[in-house]
Amino acid sequence: MVSSRRAPVSMLLVLSMALIIVGGIYIAGNLPHVPPLAPDVVLLVLSVLLAGAAVAALSRQRPFAWDSFFRVMRWTLLAYVVIGGMLEYIFVVDGVRGDALIVTTLMLLVYAVDIPMLLSYSVARYQTPAESPA
Amino acid sequence: MAVVTAQTQESVTPPRDFQIVPVKGIPIVVAILAGLVVAIAGNWQWALDFCHVVAGGLWTGIDLFVGLVIGPILGSLPVPARVEFSKRFMPKMLLIMPTLVIVTLASGWQLARRIGDLAVAYPQHWWLTASFIVVGIMSVIALGILEPANLAVLFELKKPHPNGELVGRLMRRFVYTAGITGLMQIATLIIMTRIATW
Fold first, then answer.
1. Which residue of A has its CA nearest to B107?
2. Domain range holding A83?
3. Complex ipTM over 0.95
4. What are the angstrom distances between the C-alpha of B8 and each of A4, A128, B67?
5. What is the residue extent of each domain of chain B?
6. Do A87 and B106 touch (CB under 8 A)?
7. d(CA A14, nearest CA chain B) in Å
8. Over pLDDT 70: what percentage of chain A?
9. Rounded CA separation A26/A36 (Å)
10. When you count CB atoms within 10 A of the terminal residue's CB, does the N or C end of chain B come out lower?
């Protein structure tokens, strides 16, 4: 039922999320001046790679309570799209434009996918399809 | 700790009669977020200050209280008592905490921008950067460890036969991480009161 030997999906997603947060701190720590975006782009690419590795590891989970995973994913994704949207709204209101806006938007996008995946996986890993609560 | 370990071996009576997300609370969350959007769009200093101080104060206070008061009490309770507490407490936290966090951060950012705190030069700017770093670390702990444990416990408790050992293990994780974020909130208090008295 509960497997103690799982692929490190959670660890990969937490690392991916942490890189996004570091990138956010880097930009926020330099505002109102937009700093060179190269460090953020590197962090973003690494974060996407880690998230991709997590998805690959997740897709190899057998057996896995996908019904529970997607049920949680649906609602948490909705919540984090709202949260990410709020943050994006603030950036736009504050006049962030150009490359900085593109990078921060992509970072928010990864962030808004990482967390729902992490939460969904955390629930589904302890469920079996037959046990998933209605 | 040995007592706690022994207690976690007990089977847990299935307390399935609760909502993982309290639906009645969602309109309140929507109303709060709508108020936040209005405050930001209008760029009203009083409203931004209100949102930041109220939500930030509640966030800090709840983190400290849960981490340093509720947590140790919860850790010392037998598993059935923890379960009864958790099924009433954790669903509410699932709505309250993310709402407080987003209101605090969004209004705080806008406020700092409006009153010119973001434009302060280094080394004074380090106080702001320090607050970003503290919030960043707390976010990783809360979103990476605490919240997944919280949600996993709630789903486990919805099962016909919850695994007492698993609930105990996840609850310990919740209590420890709540304690860590609670302690980190002391750093937030120091930084924020310092910034407020520039």
1. A90
2. 9-124
3. no
4. 17, 21, 21
5. 2-7+17-196
6. yes
7. 5
8. 92
9. 10
10. N
